[in-house]
Amino acid sequence: MRFWFVRRSLGARGERLAERYLRRQGMRILHRGYRIMGGEIDLVAVDGRTVVFVEVKTRQTHDAGHPADAVDDRKQHQLTQLAMAYIKRYHLQNCSTRFDVVAITWGADTPKLEHYRNAFEASR
Q: Long-range contacts made by residues 37-45, C-beta under 8 angstroms, separation at least 24?
């Protein structure tokens, strides 16, 4: 149980850091932790006239690989399905969209944040 709590806490810290970073980049955050059947979209933002679906991956080390590597084909497919449901629910079919990944490595004290704009194309 404690491991889950630590992991969730690290993930929540990473999502808050990513949100602050994206706001400083001029994005407007529409939703945090948007849950629908089938999963969760970490952040939904608007960048200019583009709706951005953001996946945040936070790790303490790279022992299990780079955080962005966790956004594999299966995860990309899941995020695409969630984004399509979001687009349909909010009638955004005519808006441009993209998928970003924010990878955070939170070492001893200082986090390293990497933002991958347009990290992948929607998968079917």
A: 38/78, 38/81, 38/82, 38/85, 39/78, 39/79, 39/81, 39/82, 40/82, 41/79, 41/82, 41/83, 41/86, 42/15, 42/18, 43/15, 43/18, 43/19, 44/86
Give per-residue pLDDT as tens, 24-74.
999 999 999 999 888 999 999 999 999 999 999 999 888 888 999 899 999
pTM: 0.90
One of 3.40.50.10420, 3.40.1350.10, 3.40.50.300, 3.90.600.10 is the CATH number of 2-120, namely 3.40.1350.10
Q: Is the dihedral of CA 28, 25, 60, 54 positive or negative?
A: positive
Residue 114: φ, ψ to 5°: -125, 130
Determine the straight-line distance between the first and last CA of the chain, rounded to whole angstroms.
36
